[in-house]
Amino acid sequence: MSMKRIESLNDFVVKFANVNGSGSASANELFAKSFLRMGIPVSPRNIFPSNIQGLPTWYEVRVTEKGWLGRRGGVDLMVAMNPQTWSQDVKEIEPGGYLFYDNTKPLPPSKFRDDVNVIGMPLTEISNATFTDARERQLFKNIIYVGALSALMDIEPGVIAELIGEQYKGKEKLLKPNLNAFQMGFNYAGEKLKGMLGLKVKRAYAVGDRIFMEGNAAAALGCVYGGATVCAWYPITPSSSLAEAFTRYCQKLRVDPDSGKNKFAIIQAEDELASIGIVCGAGWNGARAFTATSGPGISLMSEFVGLAYFAEIPAVIIDVQRGGPSTGMPTRTQQSDVLKCAYLSHGDTKHVLLFPEDPHECFNFGALSLDLAERLQTPVFLMTDLDIGMNQRLCKPLQWDDARVYDRGKVMTAEMLDGGKEFGRYLDVDGDGIPYRTYPGTHESKGAYFTRGTSKNPYAVYSEAGADYAYNMERLLKKHDFAKTLLPKPLLTPAREPARFGCIYYGSTSPSMHEALEALADKGIFVNALRVRAFPFQDEIYDFCQSHAKVFVVEQNRDAQLKTLLVNEAGVNPACLISVLHYDGTPITARFIAREISEIVSALNVRPIKKDKAA
Amino acid sequence: MTYVLKPKLHHPMLAKNKLGFTRRDYEGKVSTLCAGCGHDSISAALIQAFFQLDIQPHRVAKLSGIGCSSKTPDYFLGNSHGFNTVHGRMPSVLTGANLANRDLIYLGVSGDGDSASIGLGQFAHVMRRGVNMTYILENNGVYGLTKGQFSATADKGSKAKKGMVNADAAVDTVSLALLMGATFVARSFSGDKQQLTPLVEAAIWHQGAAFIDVISPCVAFNNHPGSTKSYDYVREHNEAVNRLDFWPSRDAITVDYSEGGVIEVPQHDGSIIKLRKLDAEYDPSDKINAITHIAQAAAKGEVLTGLLYLAPDAEDLHQHLNTFEAPFNRLGEKELCPGSALLDKINAGLR
Ligand SMILES: Cc1ncc(C[n+]2csc(CCOP(=O)(O)OP(=O)(O)O)c2C)c(N)n1
Ligand code: SF4
Ligand SMILES: [Mg+2]
User: A297: which of A35, A338, A553, B89 lies 20 to 30 Å off by Cα?
Assistant: First the structure.
């Protein structure tokens, strides 16, 4: 009886199980990029547990000509390079899938599965025969397996040679042995492993002009383009690489060529309290400033965010969300800070949130958030997550309109003050709730004021009078409401046929959602989908809920946080909302969404539903 | 109260500085602190210093934390922007403000609770970074605003108004500032205008992190019976104290003593603080010497006052970061945005 073999062209999942620090990252990236060069979309994901025993790290590559960039789930080919995680890795392979491993040292049959095709290759032996240095032997083993996979899958060798050439441009010493190692793997597999793998690729034309970038880098670049000059941060996974990318881009793009001086200041602060304090000080004084952090950092920033809300100070906070506390799931993705950020701090506070779906939007919203913070004179949260932030994602190229002018908001200048314009720091002069501000040092005798929390009248004079407090609080509410007009609108993806059901989703759920919508439509389940991109919610969101019998709210958290916000803030009837929740720390998949929704739909069709069915 | 509401009309006879401002142009709102509070005396010294230095008031940014001390920036330099931030976190806000506009003069005002308790971390780090500022710590050993709890600078063994005895060691802020890298470190007494005003002036001139710990008695929560050294005790021993005036309660305490001299100053709670003024030969450029002197004085139960340390080659944060000369808050898209052509190049590198 011959064993089942998965056969697939341009559509499969490969997972690499590696030891951290073994040099696998750049080899794996080379592998992923080779598909892009052949015009086939890929979606890679880093999986790196916080617990570093055995230093395991995984890299999962979904090859998908159709362009589904969400995580698929399941593994068709496991490249098992970490003995410590062997059994767990072998278990994960789909029946009929493949296990590729280093067979330099023989393993007992008990280590394998009957329903998995095994491809062994003496990687260590081959590497050791050519390279003498221990580090080189380790490093080139990775390139050798890329060579072998290339032969097994029909990846065009020219594409890899080109990528290696780009990577080691000007470093001839490294270029040669890399090409050599690649060729060794390619030749060995071509001769000895021919026909053993049923996962193949063929040149396609499905990538177009898209770029391949991490969300953290894109958000950082958005802050460079958007004019941030001050960045203060404290290291925390998964946000650290954002501040690091900002540093790198600034060193390239923001050093004054004449003087050699920096048009940026980056402070690695002593903690998140100081990070946000520095951002508030800079914002108060008229510079564009941001910080990047994750959940625990947001918790620490809570007090300052309240002050910034009441004192009306522009501040941009990028929250690369992860799973909970420091000893929780710091290296796993979630959308679990939504409610916390929406209402962060003491007193009646509400904040502006932006939900980018991918690096392209991280860039756009990064720049936009700096405009919004100054226009609205308030903290603005850019809510990304680990899945978008720390993985390279295929997305539309970044764009910038050179005619674009920064929106510096309502700033009263010395000329305006001399011209007799009345200045009341907390006075609503335009009916939008947004007052004018002055930068410190503006005028010899006019426009100075004392900044404090809520005990003030519209002219920033100390007051504990109830009427003054109420006026201010209502004006802040008006301002929050006005923010809706400036925020990115929700985006509708209509179903192929008229639909009773609607679905609301946001952020990194996007690619899996789109794939799920296709799968559902193929089964005859039609769902109109609305991607929410900002809070406070525009009327379109309410109208969307009103015009569907039931609306699924798909989220990556346990507590249905966006749903709560929809009920609380958009006045949506909770009876018409059904949560679809994924919160195990892995990115949500299309399979999960489609299964959940189709189950609920069939249940709804069988009997009238009484209560929300939560997943 | 130190100030009563004065008519804004300036008397023609009022002395003017080089800029044509009178001292009153450096004043602020009427103080709401308790009569006799040391903090008001410090505000007066600040007003005097800015007036004498011919600084345009609006070129100063005043930042503070939370506390009675932190309220005072509202009571001087009324034409300057001020920022009452959050408890213990003024240093970070001042750092950010300083980064946004390096052309202004930054004055940080804080209390001992603000700087040595809740804000000890930020206090230490702002000194490390060498932020160009004048940092005034109005040190009364208690939380004035929250009604008399101990702060971290309260001496071990001192007794609070409600009877609690402090069992914790005191934080010495000048030693800490020195160790953390402040490049100007001084200590003074709120009642010693003669000493305090020139120290403030020197701190403002200093291009780096300048710190002055100013001992500043709280009249409300340190004047109670049961103190080991009571008010009466001090009165009885008044004669024994050299060159000492004695003030009735609720008046601000002032002192006048010469370089190298020691003075025992009774506090409102009846305790005595022994101040020793550095003598004229003291060399403030030697950091190790400064640390030794402070420790030696402390061993004798004395509090050393004067300019303790002045780094000869002070640098500030902007130098460390090699920042652009123009204030960041004046830079727009022209100076900051790399433009679409460069973005296309970046895109090309990401395929
Ligand atoms: C986060 C926070 N905790 C507590 C308080 C309450 N609080 C206000 S002022 C203060 C102590 C101030 O002491 P200090 O800095 O010595 O100032 P003083 O009033 O003595 O001049 C405290 C605890 C607060 N405002 N914020
Ligand atoms: S309570 Fe103490 S510190 Fe506060 S104003 Fe009164 S005397 Fe000054
Ligand atoms: Mg105090």
Answer: A553
